[in-house]
Structure formats: C-alpha cells, structure tokens
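Example for tutorial group B:
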C-alpha cells in the first residue's frame, strides 16, 4: 500500500516521502479500514514540525485526525461491524494515549471503538471531516460552555471552519451569536450565514461594540481561537463572572517560540470580576472521555451533518502523489476549501459530494 511518511521533524514538504508499505493486519477488537478520503489539517502539519501538543516517534505516517473508508477486514473476536461497512475513523490520539495512527495511507488498523458508521448519502468530503471541526463546535457550545437558548455567545474567528459551524449550531439551538472578524469584507458573509451580530476589528472597538449589543446584561460565554491581544480583548469584554474557552492561537500561527504564545489578560479583570479563561484541546478531551461518550458525541455530530443542520465546506481532492501541492494549499491565504487526500476504492471517490 502507499503511505505518506515523515522520516524526521521538519517542514512537511521537505520531510514527507511516498512509500510502499505492507498492508497491516487487525488484531482482536480491531478493524482494517481501506481509506477513501482524509483531510490535511493545519495541526497535522504542526505535528510534523514539532510544534503541536504531542510529538510522535519518527518515522511516522502523516495525518493524525480523521478519515473515511470501508471496513476491509476484522480481527478475531471483533463484533459490531461488518465487512464493507462505511465508517469514519477517529485517529485523534488522546493525551496521554497510544501512538499516533496515521491516516495518510491507503489502509489503517484501528480499534473498533474509534469507528463510527456513516450513511452512503453523506459525501466523502463531509464524512472525512466529521471528527474534528464539527465535533469541536458541538463540544464548545454544549459541553464546555453549556450555552443556553437566548444567551449570547461571543466568538472570534467567525469566518473559520469551526466559527461557521458554531454559527450554524447556535442558530439551530436558539443561541444568538456575536461574531468577531478582522476584515470588513467578511461581515456580510457572516450575517448571511446566520450570525446575529458581527464586529469587525479592522474599524470597530470590540469592547464598546459588545457593550452596545448586549446592554446591561452583558455577555457571559465566549470562545476564542485567536489568542494574543484579540483574546485579551474578548476576556475584557465579558461581564463579571464570564468564561472564555480558548481552543486555538491563530494570531501566532507561524510562531515557533512557545513563550510568544500568550494572551495578555488584565489581572484586575480576572481577580475582581472573577472571570475564567481556560483551554480546550480535542486530543485531551478524547483522553478524558469514555469510549461511549466519545461515540455518543460523534453520533450527534453525524446526525446534525446528515440532517443538514451543519454544513461542512467542500474539500479539494488531491491524490497522494501530489502531497507537496496539498500541503502548500492547506496553508495558502484565502483558500476556499480544505485539501483532502483521496483514494479510489470502487465506491464513492468524489470529494465534494
């Protein structure tokens, strides 16, 4: 089988090589999955650069998040799945947890509790992106912050994939959103998507606009994936007792010095107004959640996507041989889709449905 392997830490385009490897065999409680599509996430690239929250042993097959495929074989004493069944494989390694299971290969072996059946009517593009961004949006809104219908939710990077999914989910749940963007050109698009209010930091003061929108009741719940000064402004804009969950640091995307990954909070605001700022990392969530809870949340996401409540942006397909193009496209400014490695298996090989 073909596999995209990184031999050492470094820039993905420099360290990745296409290799031929034997097809692995599943053990007890495991399944062999023939991969049909798998995304290229920014976090996948940061893992190879040695700049993520864990570091695998090299050489390692790239891709540590998610994929879609069909069950090719089952190990001994394995129940609950059928040969040929279409499944999403959740490769996100819990922290602490087992070694990384790479998804950038034609076949992979994984425990069956990490596989979620998906209907054939769901495109490969949507199915292979179920386990990260839509799940993150669901967990942030309903588990981490437990935002209630009618309660304001403030979020940064509203135009990001997770930001757009949060807007869709919040609209479905009756939660009004205040959405922060950095370009005026993005405002109309976010409103058309269903965002109730939009603040553009290019020409608006974030704290003043939040106060104007929310009034005396204020905003008590916020998500942030920008960090830096913007994250600090969001914290400052919260009402006393408010809480902010930070799940990314887009403002420091190319930063290699961990000491520079900061959110300059105001001590008075944190102390005297009892505000809470905490982090969320999907890998750590998988480490803490039981297999039953993880599959329950994934099933909820699958149903929301299948029913059309959540719409995942279409991916752009790349064959594995064009990995240098896919890697470059993954971080290209203004890209309109996520790159997907696709494999033909005689089934649904289209990436965009």
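The residue assignment follows.
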């Amino acid at each position: 089988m073909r596999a995209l392997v990184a031999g050492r830490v470094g820039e993905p385009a420099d360290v990745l090589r296409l290799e031929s490897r034997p097809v692995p065999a599943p053990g007890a409680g495991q399944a062999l999955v023939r991969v049909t599509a798998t995304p290229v996430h920014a976090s996948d690239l940061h893992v190879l650069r040695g700049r993520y929250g864990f570091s695998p042993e090299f050489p390692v097959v790239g891709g540590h998040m998610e994929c879609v495929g069909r069950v090719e074989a089952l190990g001994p004493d394995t129940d609950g799945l059928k040969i040929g069944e279409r499944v999403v494989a959740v490769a996100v390694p819990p922290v602490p947890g087992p070694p990384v299971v790479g998804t950038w290969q034609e076949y992979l072996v994984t425990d069956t509790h990490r596989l979620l059946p998906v209907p054939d009517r769901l495109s490969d593009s949507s199915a292979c992106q179920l386990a990260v961004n839509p799940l993150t949006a669901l967990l942030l809104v309903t588990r981490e912050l437990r935002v209630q219908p009618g309660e304001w939710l403030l979020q940064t990077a509203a135009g990001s994939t997770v930001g757009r999914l949060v807007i869709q989910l919040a609209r479905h749940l009756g939660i009004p959103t205040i959405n922060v963007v950095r370009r005026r050109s993005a405002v109309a698009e976010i409103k058309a998507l269903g965002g109730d209010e939009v603040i553009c930091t290019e020409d608006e003061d974030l704290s003043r606009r939040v106060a104007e929108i929310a009034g005396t009741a204020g905003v008590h719940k916020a998500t942030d994936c920008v960090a830096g000064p913007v994250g600090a402004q969001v914290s400052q804009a919260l009402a006393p007792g408010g809480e902010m969950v930070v799940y990314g640091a887009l403002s420091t995307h190319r930063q290699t010095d961990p000491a520079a990954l900061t959110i300059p909070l105001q001590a008075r605001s944190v102390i005297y107004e009892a505000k809470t700022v905490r982090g969320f990392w999907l890998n750590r969530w998988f480490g803490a959640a039981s297999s039953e809870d993880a599959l329950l949340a994934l099933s909820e996401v699958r149903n929301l996507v299948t029913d059309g409540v959540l719409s995942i942006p279409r991916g752009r397909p790349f064959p594995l041989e064009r990995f240098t193009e896919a890697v470059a496209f993954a971080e290209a400014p203004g890209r309109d889709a996520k790159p997907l490695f696709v494999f033909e298996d005689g089934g649904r090989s289209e990436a965009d449905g």
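The domain at 2-130+302-342 is CATH 3.90.180.10 (Quinone Oxidoreductase; Chain A, domain 1). Compare this with the pattern of hydrophobic and polar residues in the output above.
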